[in-house]
Design a protein that fits this description.
By secondary structure, this protein is of the alpha/beta class. It is 34% helix and 23% strand. Helix 4 runs antiparallel to helix 5 and helix 23 runs parallel beside helix 24. The longest helix is centred in the middle third of the chain and has 18 residues. Strand 20, helix 16 and strand 21 form a beta-alpha-beta unit.
Length: 715
């Protein structure tokens, strides 16, 4: 039987990238993350080699390949047809047919009463190519030339598999492989078979626009075809703010024709005029797609191109995902494990299976169990420890990376433990359900991250603990106090506040140059950390509080403003403004709260009544009556973040603020000029918010203040 070589997408493990190809593997990871995609299975490349070997095709194919004249198109086509005929004449063995059809009949399985009905389903059959030798971006043309849509029926599916294998020797692919110098046996072809979605609409999504990482781009067309059809049909175009999910830009296009499934065939048909009169996607659709894009980008940590389709029930499904940067599309190298050495070790111990869960980080590791229930237990973890807990939390992160292995009661393939374990190459097994009950402190166990099993071992003696000064890990941020060098810029009357985009910037700021800093949730935590925090919402307040406490110690004596975005989604896909305010409340009055995106002046009142912090509001447009309402609610400062500046109105509003003793701050964005800054100074602004790279503006501010003072003295 070849069942292990034919698997459902959800069954593919992390170390099988080479066996199933990058495309199939990434679909598997998406499936495990519960992101919707058409149900499907993968026939890995070993079946191809088994077919070639059993039918004695290898030598025959090689003989034909040797005789091809690649300067002669006709000869390439003739030799391609010879190889194709060789494939199509051969028969599959019965085991392979049985395994494929067993999976195929389940694609269309549905529940009717107490019975499962099995029907032949329309399928999409596509190639997933892999290679240890060649970059995957160079194998894309092979995938693009291989595959079929709307294949239905058992014989048709089996024939299409054979056709896909034969397509590896099509004239276009033969010529491409020759030009690239690819060796035949170093390219592996797996086949993905998925339920074919007769899409009402389809398209592509870029999770980050090239010139703006905060913007998601979505393009949509009628019918299916997505990316391939967008090259022929102009799509509707949408640009969405990644955090707020508001539509920044949208354009509509007229589409005359689309692809549709009619009587089992892909047919080109006219678009109904009434359908083409309106936008292809509404705001709900855009929000749903953008949320999927945010989740995918959080998982993979890079900008992605996502091929999507909307089914007849108006549900979105993901068809394919690829990094926008093709250089990031790589086969993960398998760890080279000295099996002999491990086997020798294992044979010298008496071992019994204790637990079984899900292996989420590959490797084998033998160590001593430490059950971790509290902070005191964390102090007892060392380099020989098998870290055992119910479920890991963010505060365990720094200790987890020291462990020799990780075992948890709960968890999933993308839980906090899995992410940490993969990041630091620690063997990890999650979802064992009873590890904290069955294992005991001091027990020697083996953790197998490949198969998700934990064994007891007898005879193991832990090596002595070595005291090593730990070097800083890649991507790890440590908060260090900036060195108090002599000021590089002159002192100004106008206060200078620097926006902190990430904690790496903290150690590079010369403290005498600034009067304070401006933070938000994105300043404090990476996407990876934010995703981990959302898995355990109970740790949000203490984690934010602890991070802010560190910041206040570093910037002692400086003013700290924390932007709280009251309505926008500002932590991956969750709004956590209430948790942020609670964390600041516990710090008493050390941090000023800057409310952003409020919809009513009344929203100031509960924050004002429940905190000792100074409360301010950020405004993006000038309206005197609104500003007066903010002032009446007791704000202490106001920040202007204006792209188009009407300085007549600005001066009027600043005058009102000044009369009410409200601090006036201008946030300088990329669209503001030096001239704008000078006018702000002339308008009696108290402070400016700038990026670290804009500190050179201090010279301009100083000179403008000096000129203003001279003018006043002359008067």
């Amino acid at each position: 039987m070849l069942e292990t070589n034919i698997k459902w997408l959800k069954e593919i493990s992390d170390h099988e990238v080479l066996e199933v190809g990058y495309k199939a593997h990434i679909l598997s990871e998406i499936s495990k993350a519960n992101i919707p995609l058409p149900r499907g299975f993968v026939i890995n490349y070993k079946n191809f080699f088994n077919f070639v070997q059993k039918n004695n095709l290898k030598e025959k194919i090689n003989e034909i390949l040797k005789t091809i004249d690649y300067n002669n198109k006709e000869d390439i086509e003739n030799k391609s047809n010879e190889i194709r005929t060789l494939f199509l004449k051969q028969k599959f063995d019965e085991d392979f047919i049985s395994d494929v059809l067993k999976m195929y009949t389940k694609l269309g399985e549905s529940k009717v009463g107490f019975m499962n009905t099995k029907v032949d389903e329309y399928t999409a059959i596509r190639a997933s190519v892999s290679s240890e030798e060649y970059p995957l971006k160079e194998l894309d043309p092979i995938e693009r030339h291989t595959g079929f849509l709307n294949i239905k029926g058992r014989e048709e599916v089996l024939n299409s598999i054979k056709e896909c294998w034969a397509d590896l020797y099509s004239p276009e692919i033969l010529e491409y492989k020759f030009k690239k110098g690819f060796e035949e046996n170093k390219i592996h072809l797996s086949i993905i078979i998925q339920k074919m979605i007769p899409g009402k609409k389809s398209g592509i999504m870029q999770t980050s626009k090239n010139d703006s990482k905060d913007t998601i781009v979505i393009e949509a067309i009628h019918g299916f075809g997505g990316k391939s059809l967008i090259t022929e049909v102009t799509p509707d175009h949408y640009e969405i703010n990644k955090k707020t999910l508001t539509t920044i830009k949208k354009t509509k296009s007229n589409q005359e024709w689309m692809l549709k499934r009619i009587v089992g065939k892909t047919t080109k048909t006219n678009v109904d005029v009434k359908d083409d009169d309106k936008q292809k996607l509404n705001q709900r659709d855009l929000n749903e797609l953008a949320n999927i894009g945010n989740k995918l980008e959080m998982i993979y940590g890079t900008s992605l191109e996502v091929n999507w389709v909307m089914d007849e029930n108006e549900e979105f499904l993901i068809v394919s995902v690829n990094p926008i940067d093709p250089n990031l599309k790589k086969i993960k190298k398998k760890k080279k494990i000295d099996i002999t050495t491990y086997q020798e070790k294992l044979d010298s111990y008496k071992k019994n299976l204790l637990l079984e869960g899900i292996g989420v980080s590959n490797g084998l590791s033998i160590g001593i169990v430490k059950i971790v229930n509290n902070k005191e237990d964390l102090l007892r973890v060392n380099e020989n420890t098998i870290f055992v807990t119910k479920m890991t939390t963010l505060e365990m992160s720094q200790t987890l990376r020291k462990a020799k292995g990780i075992v948890t009661d709960a968890g999933s393939t993308i839980c906090h433990a899995a992410l940490i374990a993969k990041k630091y190459d620690v063997p990890c097994v999650v979802h064992t359900e009873r590890s904290t009950e069955i294992l005991r402190d001091g027990q020697a166990v083996l953790v197998n991250g490949f198969n998700g099993k934990v064994y007891s071992v007898i005879g193991y003696v832990a090596p002595p603990i070595t005291k090593v000064t730990e070097t800083k890990r890649e991507n790890e941020v440590s908060i260090e106090k900036a060195q108090n060098k002599d000021p590089e810029y002159p002192k100004t009357i106008t206060k200078i506040f620097v926006k902190i985009n990430n904690l790496d910037e903290v150690k590079n700021i010369n403290l005498p140059d600034i009067d304070g800093i401006v933070l938000n949730i994105d300043s404090l935590f990476t996407n990876y950390e934010k995703g981990s925090m959302l898995e355990n919402i109970n740790i949000l307040v203490p984690t934010i509080k602890n991070k802010l406490l560190e910041i206040t110690k570093i910037f002692e004596g400086k003013e700290i403003f924390y932007k709280v975005n009251t309505h926008k989604q500002n932590l991956i896909t969750e709004n956590v403004s209430s948790y942020e305010i609670e964390a600041i409340m516990e710090l008493k009055s050390r941090i000023n709260i800057l409310l952003e995106n409020i919809k009513s002046a009344d929203e100031i009142i509960p924050v004002k009544e429940n905190t000792e912090s100074k409360i301010g509001v950020l405004v993006e447009n000038i309206k005197e009556n609104i500003i007066s309402e903010y002032i009446s609610r007791g704000i202490e400062n106001i920040t202007f973040n204006l792209e188009e500046i009407d300085f007549v109105k600005v001066k009027e509003v600043i005058k009102i603020c000044k009369e009410n003793k409200i601090m006036r701050i201008a946030e300088i964005n990329s669209k503001n000029t030096i001239s704008n800054i000078k006018t702000y100074i002339d308008s009696n602004i108290n402070g400016v918010i700038i990026n670290k790279e804009q500190l050179e503006y201090k010279d301009t501010i100083y000179k403008q203040e000096r000129d203003l003072l001279k003018n006043l003295l002359s008067v």
